[in-house]
Amino acid sequence: MKIPQQGLSAQDVMQQLNSYRQQDLNWRDGKTFSYIYDAGQEVENICKEAYLAFLTESGLDPLSFRSLLKLENDVASMAKNHLRGDDEVVGTFSSGGTESIILAVKAARDYARHERNITQAEIILPVTAHAAFFKAADYLGIKAITVDVNPETYKAETSKIAAAITENTVLLVGSAPSYAHGVIDPIAEIGQLALDRGILFHVDGCIGGFLLPFMRKMGVAVPDFDFTVPGVTSISMDFHKYAYVVKGASIVMYKNKNLRKYQFYACTDWTGYPVVNPTVQSSKSGGPVASAWATMNFLGENGYLDLARQLHEATQKFVAGVEKMPDLQVMGTPEMTLVAVKSDTINIFHVVDEMKVRGWHIQAQLAVGGHKENFHLTIQPSNVAKMDEMLVDLEESVRAVKELPLSPIPPQLQSLLGAVASGSVPLDNLGALLQNAGIQGDKLPERTAVINSLLNHLPCAIRTQILLNFFNEVFRSE
Ligand SMILES: Cc1ncc(COP(=O)(O)O)c(C=O)c1O
Fewer Cβ neighbours under 10 Å: the N or C end of the chain? Predict the structure, then answer.
């Protein structure tokens, strides 16, 4: 595409833009179990109205845009109360879970550098910690040390974390809950370990930090995971998940200002204006923070409680339904609204495909470190009314899959797979494998069980390389 010589009419621009949406996932039908947190039209409307009202304001300088400073301070104050922080607790609004996590890891690295003289920082990650921590370690030049989780509960094991601590450990990490299996790590135990060893401890509440307190208020047994737990020094919590705010809204909270200051960045060594950035982003729109402020004020505690009740019931219904299907097993005991399902008898990736044929979008998760491949649901409000229909289709899908081979990998691909896994095919020459698996350019085939099964068989380093190569092709500038 080239910038047109003569601009188009506003109507033509919008028509063209909207036409591009035709191939998008149709999430408005309530049959999508990831990406989207849809609390209905009214909530979407207020989100958008507030977003649009502040879209054009700049978050680069909070002293020039006092409205944005006020909104951020209000949002941080709501988050502090929600996570039961004392008067010392402070936060920073960010663009999403990944940014909040990168900021918390940076703060831990720089705190350790300045206050403990650690220059070769390490963080300890249960294998179930979100990829954002691995990314943060990669970006920030920190060593990520992975520890396994309990093979039955999928929760982090404090003894394994303790054994991995070295004199360079700057941060321990626990999830409340983890994305993949929806279980809460033993936060109180890890907090005690962190206190005993004088190490910072981040709780990843990106997906659960907002919803879990409402579930506790409903009477569900939710273990303490917030600032009431001794040893917890920072928490990330996303508004663009279960607070139902549009994308670009999260917060990272710290036990006190002395910790948070290591997250900030300032530069006066250049010829331009003095830069002080609390976040990774510098110039940023005021839309997301206004949207977060508006949505929380619009729904209120009662609105969120009502949605939490519906989600809890729908999750219980799904788990009970799966437990009646002998070919499927729920992994661990889901403690919120995230469920992973595996099978010992059928290929779970075929189930994902069969569900897609029936209009459902569910995520495939690959096997890692001996933990089996599975499919994952993030249950959100628009799924609630669809749960009975979904269970009927799931049962039918399992029946259909039983007619299919356990391994969908055709024989010619088996030998190529062996060659790739043993390293005898150069990593940047993996196009043949993908083409044989049905990938055409940037288009995935309708059924993805072959691709998922191939990736599932390969070591993580090779999978990663294949995916990087593929996405490097997907983004083009033709
Ligand atoms: C537990 C957890 N942490 C971090 C993230 C990353 O959040 P984001 O996708 O907003 O960057 C997610 C996203 O699902 C998550 O579930």
Answer: C
Could you identify the atom of ligand 1 that is nearest to the CA of residue 238?
10
Triad 22, 24, 26: Cα angle to 5° = 95
Please indicate, yes or no, whether residues 395 and 338 belong to a single structural domain of this protein. yes
Residues near 316 by Cβ (< 8 Å), separated by ≥ 6? none
Residues 129 and 275 occupy one common structural domain: yes
| 447 Cα to the center of ligand 1, angstroms | 26
User: CB–CB of 425/416 below 8 Å?
Assistant: yes
Distance 174 CA to ligand 1 centre (A): 13
Q: Are residues 238 and 108 in the same domain?
A: yes
pLDDT digits (tens, 9 = 90+) for 235-285: 999 999 999 999 999 999 999 999 999 999 999 999 999 999 999 999 999
> pLDDT at position 429, please?
66
Using the mean position of ligand 1's atoms as its centre, give its distance from the Cα of residue 175 in Å: 11
Q: How many domains are contained in the chain?
A: 3
In a domain, 8, yes or no: no
Contact between residue 241 and residue 251 where contact means Cβ atoms under 8 Å apart: no
Q: Are residues 461 and 313 in the same domain?
A: no
> 96 in ligand 1 pocket by Cβ < 6 Å?
yes
Domain hosting residue 451, numbered range: 411-474
Among protein residues, the one with the nearest Cα to ligand 1's atom 9 is 97
DSSP3 helix / strand / coil % (the chain, rounded to 5): 45, 15, 40
**Pocket flag, ligand 1, residue 100 (CB < 6 Å):** no
